[in-house]
Fold these 4 entries.
Entry 1:
Amino acid sequence: MGGFEAEGEGGYWESDQVAKLMANNNTNSQNIHGIRPTIQKDNGIYSIKAHAKVNIFLKITGHKEDYHTLLSRFMQVQDLYDTITFVPFECDSFTIEGCGDIPLKSNTIYKAYQALNDHTGDLDILEFFYKHKVIVTKRIPSQAGLGGGSSDAAAFMLLVKDVCNLMIPTEELAKLGSTIGADVAFFIYNYPSANVSGFGEKVQLFNENPLALELFTPNIGCNTALVYKTFKENLLEDVTACSFFGWDDIDSRTLLEEKSDPIELNDLFKAACIAYPELREVAKEGKGKWFFSGSGSTFFRLKS
């Protein structure tokens, strides 16, 4: 279910070390205002869509301070999203519904709430959530390489910024989001398509429209930590940066039409297949050109 622990395609961490590294980096050098999200308001109820993403390509660029760095093209999936809603309700403490059995303190939305409180010190946030609860309508599957938990956290932060009138620039909010999860900065900027690098904190708009994509998510959950560990132990020495030089300048449709091998486009696919051998059988069953998103387990292709 949604709002899982801090993880993402920029890597996985169990301490604050990489989060601090990400927050200290320059999140974006241009287009720093991002694209304003659509927020629905009706009789004191506020809602926002938290879109899924796919990785058109994902290449590991190195290993720094025990964490992987990458270069990837993230693309929003327009027709797959969770919905984050603030509903009037008298609460004794911060309340989230719709996230199943995920412990509150492990929920990325709760982590976003804490981060906003600590960063801004704005009492309006505390007051607002004494009078509203958070309801999450989940549609994005977990452990599927679609960024559901990170997207939920980012959408929550954007909605709080709006309803509580927080005077915090998008770039600053993205840096704060990077302390929660590696993909959160991308979702904060709300770009339809972007080149993402570093630990996931460097986000640069790529000027293209989102593609119409068909998704297939098998009943296999891929643990991001395990996939990255498997990559490090088996495949890290094979990293060759020159093999994908210039990919960040090529539009996504061209990449998908010219490449036929999901292993070529996504360095984590082979690692995921080692960790989860059943993925190989799923891949063989697919007809046509299917590609692999993030650390898995979702496959995607261009719609006919």
Entry 2:
Amino acid sequence: MSQSPACVILAGGLARRMGGGDKPLKTIGGKTILDRVIECVTPQCAVIALNANGEPARFAQWKLPVVADSIDGFAGPLAGVLAGMDWAAQHAPLSPFLLSVAADCPFLPNDLVAKLESTREATDADICVAHSGDQAHPVIALWRVALREDLRRALVDENMRKIDRWTARYKMARADWRVEPVDPFFNANTPDDIAEAERLLREV
């Protein structure tokens, strides 16, 4: 396996369905979702940064670099991926790939990087996206950091916001996970999702 990837945890969303605030700071089983994400990706990645907009001090207790979008106006997850690529290029120059994960996924798998990387290597893909059941999870992916200037142009010059439109330009692979007993990419978007996550936690 090649050099462990850098990781960006995407926490830049507006959390409208949660009623505002930071979704990753909600607790499940007495632990924040962000803590759960960090615990999962730390042994799998070379370095980790948090992509978040607004006041970075609210994440100070985690002692992670906080990188904001360089594209104005809450341009969506692609802007967070670009921020992560730029950070990785500077702080992990030996890691040709960046792992992005959503900060609201409390059940991420411990084989996330291994499976994404082995699938990517087998296909020589530029991007490898996580998939479970019949659903792709495009914000949970390995990205070739060398694509960052292409992504910047797409965001700035083309006003591109949809992940699928941009990834369609490149060789992409898909790594599959089972959804039993729990979908590893379950994400907590609403208060009802938090309640469901508490229930699922007992099954993990």
Entry 3:
Amino acid sequence: MDAGNLARLNDARRARRAVALITDLARGSDTIALEGDDVAAALRPAVEAAFRSGKSGLVELEGRSYFVNVHLPPAHIVIIGAVHISQVLAQMASLVGFDVRIIDPRTAFATPERFAGVDLTADWPVDVLQQRPLDAYTALVAVTHDPKIDDLPIVEALRAGCFYVGALGSRKTHAARLERLRNGGMGDADLARIHAPIGLAIGAASPAEIAVAILAEIVQSLRSRDVTSPKGDVP
């Protein structure tokens, strides 16, 4: 691999940017493409598919062979609210391969006994997210039903371009939420990205079923996300 391309690859991975090393197997030459970069038209569908799936592979095009080696940042799920849904969602999401952390300032809910082995912070999201900010490879799940806790991280997630932003609540509750956020300066295009009521519409009733619906919607959003737009700068 070219030393310059190796440096770009490592820089992208440190910056939590999706990056692909595209090697022309006949010529032995390679190029680097970040998610959202413009690539050769013939290669574009294969590269975009690799960014969505996270799977590397051989591509045969016009009699030539390329290997697309893709590196995706580990996807995070940040759950706002240490509630019953969160207990199940954290376990299932870890099995699927997501890094999970839970934030809730209510110490009666955010206890190690209820969330053994989970990255749990009993503090206000405004403080936690300053130290550990959200990014494009993060899913934000807000489930406290308390605007004082949920609203700020939802705004932060929209501004950070998180691939998924979901909020618990009925349509009436969500309408009130939208009004608050709109009054706070958020635009309609950003607000339209919020998944609410949260989760796929599978008729979920119990906390465990709601967690299944949320996780399925997160996976769907990750694998169908827009990979044609740049996700930020690489230092």
Entry 4:
Amino acid sequence: MSGVPTSFHLGPLVFHTYGFGLAIAAYVCYLYARRRLSKVDFSVEPFGKFTLSLIVAGLLGARLANIATNWGYYSGHPARWIAVWQGGLASFGGIALALPVGLYFQRRWWPESSLAGFTDALVPALIAGWALGRVLGPQFMVNGGGHLTHQWFGLHYAGEVGKRVPVPLIQGIEDSILWLALLGLEHLRPLRRVGVITGVAMIVWGLVRSLDERLLLGQESHSGSIGVQIAGLVLALAGAVLLVRQLRVGCSTPDPSVDPHAPVTRSERR
């Protein structure tokens, strides 16, 4: 691994490097999401409160999911439940709780807006933030690597013996490619439909996350690993349902740069 320490001390306080990395990624994601929402004329006034609600719900859900899937470790030790500085956050648990919270506050603070239009603006920013978070977060935490490997790309991680598959870096690259693909899809005007960006992101991210867990991280006997694989497939299936539905409805996303009354050219039909 690099020479960056996994933690450092300031007097009696201990700070974990990956926590700062995740905070940076969250802040960049917030600024980018706010900008994207503003560009499509969503009010950004309540977005700070919306973001805070998602962060709190995500952290709580991620922690509860980790406790539930590792009950043998936490059972009988209540103090371990709140020791998040020792690690133990399950991403799909965070998504599972943040999703209904986000839906509730989206309806409350943007009642006149399209949910699919809102998520289309938000999701690419979330993917970009996730990509940055994988590089700045788990890459610098204890036990952050994947399976043991002897290949040239293996890295050493604190708390793990031998060279490991650099899963955080791999996932950062995967999510960066997905982010670029979503931006490219946004610019395909003839194919734009409300909800398509969200559906494609759910399908790709869910499948890739499930495969990563299966091939790079997971253990067959570990309930948490199997749960991640199943959750990834469920997310992808939900995205496929959304994508098919939105394409059938054929509700075009408004594009202010194009005159709606202008004739369609032959190249645009393609």
